[in-house]
Amino acid sequence: MTVAMGRADTPLPADVDVAVIGGGIMGLGLAYHLALLSGGKARPPLSIAVIERSYLVSGASGRNGGGVRMQWGDAGNVRLMMESIELCKDLAQQLGINLWFRQGGYLFLARSEAGERRLERNVQLHAEVGAPTRLLTAAEARAIVPQLEVAEVRLATFNPDDGVVFPWAFVWGYAARAVERGVTLRTHTSVVRVEPLARGYALHLHTGEVVRARRVVNATGAWSGALNRQLGIDLPNRPHRHEILSSEPLKPFLDPLVVDLTTGLYFSQSTRGELVTGISLPDAPDGSDESLTLHSSLRFLTHLSATLTRLMPITAAMKVLRQWVGPYDVSPDGDAIVGPSPGHPDFVQVCGFTGHGFMMAPAVGRLLARWLGLGEAHPMLARWSPDRFAAGGVARREDMIIG
Amino acid sequence: MTARTFVCRCEDVTLTEIERAIAAGLSDVEEIKRYTGLGTGPCQGKECLSALGRLLVARGLISPAALRPFTARPPVEPVTFGALAAGATEVPEDPSP
Ligand SMILES: Cc1cc2nc3c(=O)[nH]c(=O)nc-3n(C[C@H](O)[C@H](O)[C@H](O)COP(=O)(O)OP(=O)(O)OC[C@H]3O[C@@H](n4cnc5c(N)ncnc54)[C@H](O)[C@@H]3O)c2cc1C
Description:
Chain B: This is (2Fe-2S)-binding protein. Chain B: Residues 3-87 form the SoxA A3 domain. Chain B: Keywords: Oxidoreductase. The complex is a heterodimer. Chain A is of the alpha/beta class. Chain A has helices at residues 25-38, 75-95, 113-129, 138-144, 167-180, 224-230, 298-311, 357-374, 379-383, and strands at 15-21, 48-51, 67-68, 106-110, 134-136, 155-159, 163-164, 184-186, 191-196, 201-205, 210-218, 238-247, 257-260, 265-269, 275-278, 319-330, 337-341, 344-351. In chain A, the strands form 3 sheets. In chain A, strands 1, 2, 8, 9, 10, 11, 17 and 18 form an 8-stranded mixed beta sheet that branches. An 8-stranded mixed beta sheet of chain A has the order 5-6-4-13-14-15-12-16. A two-stranded antiparallel ribbon of chain A has the order 3-7. Chain A is globular. The relative contact order of chain A is 0.19. By secondary structure, chain B is mostly helical. Chain B has a domain at 6-71: Arc Repressor Mutant, subunit A, CATH 1.10.10.1100. The termini of chain B are far apart. The chains are: A alpha/beta, B mainly alpha. The interface between A and B is large, with 52 and 36 residues. Strand 16 of chain A pairs antiparallel with strand 3 (79-80) of chain B. Flavin-adenine dinucleotide (FAD) binds next to helix 1, strand 12, strand 16 and helix 8 of chain A.
């Protein structure tokens, strides 16, 4: 049988050049880009294995909202996302899948003076960087989404290039094309122990197998701390539960993804017709939000519904269909944690993407592969260095993180 | 049964699409759900899940004892945002920065 996707019985080589732990969008996107390079400029070709504990898309990559935007508060992030959105345009063809990528824009709403200042700053910054974001009055926002209750809206911004994707297809597409290019993809297999060798690492799997790798990439997102601790690598990213839901499918009526800065409410209509929506939820008093438990809460449902029906009154009659949870991998300064680990240069992190790793993955996969395969630098890699925390950390640069 | 036999009527998933997922090496209900969209519509798999389970067992891909339904997602039945909003204890009001 042709092994087009990961299986629990895919044979694993005893030695590989690069072992990627974690089959989410980061691990698979990186493997795909490495394999592309490997056939071309990187000589000799690299042997690459991806090892995933569960099924593909079981982590945050199969549980997110699919929002893709260049409206950020920091120039580095705006540029990176312009790169990523550019890549998304051709990706469906490259990966041979339907990405359900729909550029309906992102509409940000400010209802406070502070929010208003953030949006004004963004528009100026985006103009400098070349992103087509524009300031809108409340009435203009309402022209884009006629169902909005805009009495409290002071200012809005809109970027027509932002949009949404359907995450599952995206991940399967990277997986299929990576495997086609020679990547070994093993699913339903957990890495239980990482043992440093004189050169590289031995990965001990729950099946008793051992894979030796010259370099290892930790792409386990919210679960990454457990593997890092085994090697004495101390990084400050922590898991955080984020809830989300989708409604019954409706005919297309909503073009942009709408974000209310005040409440952290966001909602969009997926290409499948469902309203997909989430919100910043104050932490539950029992501390469970900092855990990796994936139970849904009624608190989220009621809090979100009260907020949504105030801003979008017609939704009162729409029905909630499904609610679920995924783990954010929260980095304390809002920047991802990518690159060689402190004290372990051949154990490479690609973690800490908080609530925006999906949209960044196309650009991250490519730039990280170029660094691993060709030694090519990228300005974001210097900024994302896992070493920055030992030096006392850096101030938060990004204030447009939602959720 | 034909290639156009619908296994999941909510999301229009056909037997052919399930066969394609199996050919791609998938054998677990959670992964087949996410590969095809089966079970993600209004009935939440109440209709299609048993048909999928039966197929996987018939193919020898899973033993009946190991077969588990996929995670149930609340709400059990579709509920309006309006009804849920009425259950909120604190109505979010204050514009914070
Ligand atoms: C509800 C929600 C909404 C979001 N909305 C958006 C959005 O709109 N836009 C956006 O860009 N981002 C969004 N995000 C964030 C985005 O989903 C993540 O940043 C991104 O998916 C991270 O990808 P990843 O590959 O790093 O992690 P994951 O997809 O979590 O993958 C990590 C994988 O590692 C595996 N693993 C863990 N431990 C081991 C081990 N020991 N051995 C083997 N495998 C292991 C896990 O099973 C998992 O599959 C959202 C996240 C959530 C939870």
